[in-house]
Amino acid sequence: MRPPLSVCLLACDEEHQLARCLEAVRWADEIVVVVDAKSRDGSEKVARDRAARVEVRPYAGDVEQKRSCVDLASHDWVLVIDPDEVMSPEMADELQRALASADDQLSGFELNRVTFHLGRWIRHGDFYPDWKLRVFRRSRAHWVGENPHGRVVVDGGVARLTRELEHYSYRDLADQLDRIQLFSSESAAALHGRGGRARVRDLVLRPPARFLRAYLLKRGFLDGVPGFVIAAATAFHVFIKYTKLWELQHASTPRVDGSGRKQDGS
Question: Structural domains in the chain?
Answer without folding.
Answer: 5-167 (3.90.550.10), 173-252 (no CATH)
